[in-house]
Amino acid sequence: MKYWIDTEFVERPYTIDLISVGLVAEDGREFYAESSEVDWTKANEWTLQTVRPQLDGSGMAREEIGYAIRRFVDKDAHPVFWGYFPAYDWVAFAWLFGDMNELPFRFPQLCLDVKQWAIELGDPALPQQVGARHHALADARWTKDAWAYLATLHPAGAARRCEGSKYPDQRAAKMV
Ligand SMILES: [Mg+2]
Questions:
Q1: Prediction pTM value
Q2: How close is the Cα of 89 to the center of ligand 1, in Å?
Q3: Distance from the CA of 135 to the center of ligand 1, in angstroms?
Q4: Distance, CA 6 to ligand 1 centroid (Å)?
Q5: Most buried residue, 3, 28, 78, 129, by CB count within 10 Å?
Q6: How many angstroms does the Cα of residue 10 sit away from the middle of ligand 1?
Q7: Distance between Cα 131 and ligand 1 center (Å)
Q8: Which of helix, strand or coil describes residue 15?
Q9: Domain residues for 146?
Protein backbone atom coordinates (compact mmCIF):
# COMPACT_ATOMS: atom_id res chain seq x y z
CA MET A 1 0.00 0.00 0.00
CA LYS A 2 1.12 3.54 -0.64
CA TYR A 3 1.49 6.14 2.10
CA TRP A 4 1.98 9.84 1.49
CA ILE A 5 3.93 11.41 4.30
CA ASP A 6 4.95 14.81 5.50
CA THR A 7 6.66 16.08 8.61
CA GLU A 8 7.33 19.42 10.17
CA PHE A 9 10.65 19.74 11.94
CA VAL A 10 13.14 22.08 13.52
CA GLU A 11 16.22 22.02 11.35
CA ARG A 12 19.65 23.07 12.48
CA PRO A 13 22.90 21.75 11.12
CA TYR A 14 23.36 18.20 12.44
CA THR A 15 19.83 18.05 13.82
CA ILE A 16 16.38 17.39 12.44
CA ASP A 17 13.96 17.58 15.36
CA LEU A 18 10.54 16.20 14.44
CA ILE A 19 7.62 18.46 15.33
CA SER A 20 4.76 16.58 13.68
CA VAL A 21 4.13 13.80 11.19
CA GLY A 22 1.19 13.09 8.92
CA LEU A 23 0.46 10.07 6.75
CA VAL A 24 -2.35 9.40 4.30
CA ALA A 25 -2.78 5.75 3.35
CA GLU A 26 -3.95 4.54 -0.02
CA ASP A 27 -7.07 3.09 1.62
CA GLY A 28 -8.05 6.53 2.95
CA ARG A 29 -6.88 6.15 6.55
CA GLU A 30 -4.95 9.05 8.02
CA PHE A 31 -2.39 9.33 10.80
CA TYR A 32 -1.26 12.45 12.58
CA ALA A 33 0.92 12.94 15.64
CA GLU A 34 2.91 15.68 17.31
CA SER A 35 6.08 15.26 19.30
CA SER A 36 6.16 16.34 22.93
CA GLU A 37 9.97 16.45 22.81
CA VAL A 38 10.63 19.38 20.47
CA ASP A 39 13.44 21.69 21.54
CA TRP A 40 11.72 24.96 20.61
CA THR A 41 14.76 26.96 21.71
CA LYS A 42 16.36 25.85 18.41
CA ALA A 43 13.43 26.85 16.21
CA ASN A 44 13.69 29.84 13.93
CA GLU A 45 11.12 32.63 13.75
CA TRP A 46 9.45 31.21 10.66
CA THR A 47 8.83 27.88 12.39
CA LEU A 48 7.58 29.56 15.55
CA GLN A 49 5.19 31.77 13.60
CA THR A 50 4.07 29.41 10.83
CA VAL A 51 4.24 25.84 12.11
CA ARG A 52 3.80 26.06 15.86
CA PRO A 53 0.42 27.88 15.88
CA GLN A 54 -1.10 25.09 13.79
CA LEU A 55 -0.30 22.37 16.32
CA ASP A 56 -3.14 20.89 18.36
CA GLY A 57 -0.98 20.29 21.43
CA SER A 58 -1.49 16.51 21.52
CA GLY A 59 2.18 15.79 22.04
CA MET A 60 3.51 12.25 22.27
CA ALA A 61 6.98 10.91 22.97
CA ARG A 62 8.83 10.18 19.72
CA GLU A 63 9.11 6.52 20.64
CA GLU A 64 5.32 6.33 21.11
CA ILE A 65 4.79 7.95 17.71
CA GLY A 66 7.02 5.27 16.21
CA TYR A 67 4.91 2.51 17.76
CA ALA A 68 1.70 4.20 16.61
CA ILE A 69 3.02 4.34 13.04
CA ARG A 70 3.98 0.67 13.23
CA ARG A 71 0.38 -0.07 14.14
CA PHE A 72 -0.91 2.19 11.35
CA VAL A 73 1.17 0.32 8.75
CA ASP A 74 0.74 -3.03 10.50
CA LYS A 75 0.63 -6.19 8.37
CA ASP A 76 1.37 -4.30 5.17
CA ALA A 77 3.93 -6.49 3.40
CA HIS A 78 4.94 -3.81 0.87
CA PRO A 79 4.54 -0.29 2.19
CA VAL A 80 5.63 2.38 -0.28
CA PHE A 81 6.22 5.88 1.07
CA TRP A 82 5.95 9.01 -1.02
CA GLY A 83 6.92 12.53 0.03
CA TYR A 84 7.57 15.89 -1.58
CA PHE A 85 11.25 16.86 -1.39
CA PRO A 86 11.25 14.24 1.38
CA ALA A 87 14.94 13.89 2.23
CA TYR A 88 14.70 15.60 5.61
CA ASP A 89 11.20 14.30 6.30
CA TRP A 90 12.43 10.78 5.75
CA VAL A 91 15.30 11.14 8.20
CA ALA A 92 13.00 12.54 10.88
CA PHE A 93 10.52 9.76 10.13
CA ALA A 94 13.07 6.96 10.14
CA TRP A 95 14.57 8.13 13.45
CA LEU A 96 11.21 7.44 15.09
CA PHE A 97 12.22 3.79 14.89
CA GLY A 98 15.91 4.04 15.72
CA ASP A 99 18.72 3.95 13.19
CA MET A 100 18.35 3.02 9.53
CA ASN A 101 18.67 -0.67 10.26
CA GLU A 102 15.97 -0.46 12.90
CA LEU A 103 13.26 0.54 10.48
CA PRO A 104 10.43 -1.97 10.74
CA PHE A 105 11.42 -4.98 8.69
CA ARG A 106 9.03 -4.44 5.81
CA PHE A 107 9.65 -0.71 5.54
CA PRO A 108 11.77 0.35 2.58
CA GLN A 109 14.91 2.35 3.36
CA LEU A 110 13.87 4.91 0.81
CA CYS A 111 11.05 7.39 0.40
CA LEU A 112 9.96 8.04 -3.18
CA ASP A 113 9.88 11.70 -4.19
CA VAL A 114 6.93 13.29 -5.96
CA LYS A 115 9.19 16.16 -7.04
CA GLN A 116 11.70 13.83 -8.60
CA TRP A 117 8.91 12.09 -10.49
CA ALA A 118 7.65 15.48 -11.70
CA ILE A 119 11.15 16.32 -12.97
CA GLU A 120 11.27 13.02 -14.86
CA LEU A 121 8.02 14.10 -16.54
CA GLY A 122 9.30 17.53 -17.60
CA ASP A 123 8.47 19.29 -14.34
CA PRO A 124 4.82 20.14 -14.94
CA ALA A 125 3.08 22.53 -12.55
CA LEU A 126 1.57 20.59 -9.67
CA PRO A 127 -1.89 21.25 -8.21
CA GLN A 128 -2.13 24.28 -5.94
CA GLN A 129 -2.41 23.42 -2.27
CA VAL A 130 -5.64 24.85 -0.91
CA GLY A 131 -6.15 25.52 2.79
CA ALA A 132 -3.62 24.88 5.54
CA ARG A 133 0.05 24.57 4.60
CA HIS A 134 3.02 23.62 6.73
CA HIS A 135 0.77 21.32 8.74
CA ALA A 136 2.03 17.76 8.38
CA LEU A 137 -1.34 16.12 7.66
CA ALA A 138 -2.52 18.88 5.33
CA ASP A 139 0.78 18.64 3.46
CA ALA A 140 0.57 14.83 3.30
CA ARG A 141 -2.90 15.15 1.77
CA TRP A 142 -1.57 17.58 -0.81
CA THR A 143 1.36 15.27 -1.54
CA LYS A 144 -1.19 12.60 -2.39
CA ASP A 145 -3.03 15.08 -4.64
CA ALA A 146 0.20 15.98 -6.43
CA TRP A 147 1.03 12.28 -6.81
CA ALA A 148 -2.46 11.62 -8.20
CA TYR A 149 -1.99 14.35 -10.77
CA LEU A 150 1.31 12.86 -11.92
CA ALA A 151 -0.33 9.44 -12.01
CA THR A 152 -2.73 10.74 -14.66
CA LEU A 153 0.29 11.72 -16.78
CA HIS A 154 2.29 8.55 -16.19
CA PRO A 155 0.20 5.64 -14.87
CA ALA A 156 3.09 3.17 -15.01
CA GLY A 157 5.22 5.39 -12.79
CA ALA A 158 2.54 5.41 -10.14
CA ALA A 159 2.99 1.69 -9.61
CA ARG A 160 6.69 1.88 -8.76
CA ARG A 161 7.86 0.25 -5.57
CA CYS A 162 10.96 0.58 -3.48
CA GLU A 163 12.31 -2.62 -2.11
CA GLY A 164 15.63 -3.85 -0.87
CA SER A 165 18.02 -2.14 1.49
CA LYS A 166 21.23 -0.21 1.07
CA TYR A 167 23.33 -2.80 2.86
CA PRO A 168 21.50 -6.11 2.46
CA ASP A 169 24.27 -8.02 4.24
CA GLN A 170 23.88 -5.95 7.40
CA ARG A 171 20.17 -6.49 7.36
CA ALA A 172 20.53 -10.22 6.83
CA ALA A 173 23.05 -10.42 9.68
CA LYS A 174 20.54 -8.78 12.00
CA MET A 175 17.91 -11.34 11.14
CA VAL A 176 19.91 -14.38 12.34
MG1 LIG B 1 5.08 20.17 5.62
A1: 0.94
A2: 9
A3: 5
A4: 5
A5: 3
A6: 11
A7: 13
A8: strand
A9: 2-175
Total domains, the chain: 1
140 Cα–ligand 1 center, Å: 7
The tens-digit pLDDT sequence of the chain (176 residues) is 999 999 999 999 999 999 999 999 999 999 999 999 999 999 999 999 999 999 999 999 999 999 999 999 988 999 999 999 999 999 999 999 998 888 888 899 999 999 999 999 999 999 999 999 999 999 999 999 999 999 999 999 999 988 777 887 776 666 65
Dist CA 65 CA 117 (whole Å): 29
Q: Are 21 and 3 in contact (CB under 8 A)?
A: no
The rounded Å distance from CA 110 to ligand 1 centre is 18
Q: Where are the beta strands (DSSP E) in the chain?
A: 2-12, 15-25, 30-35, 59-60, 80-83, 112-113
In single-letter form, the type of residue at position 149 comes to: Y
What is the 97 CA–ligand 1 centroid distance (Å)?
Answer: 20
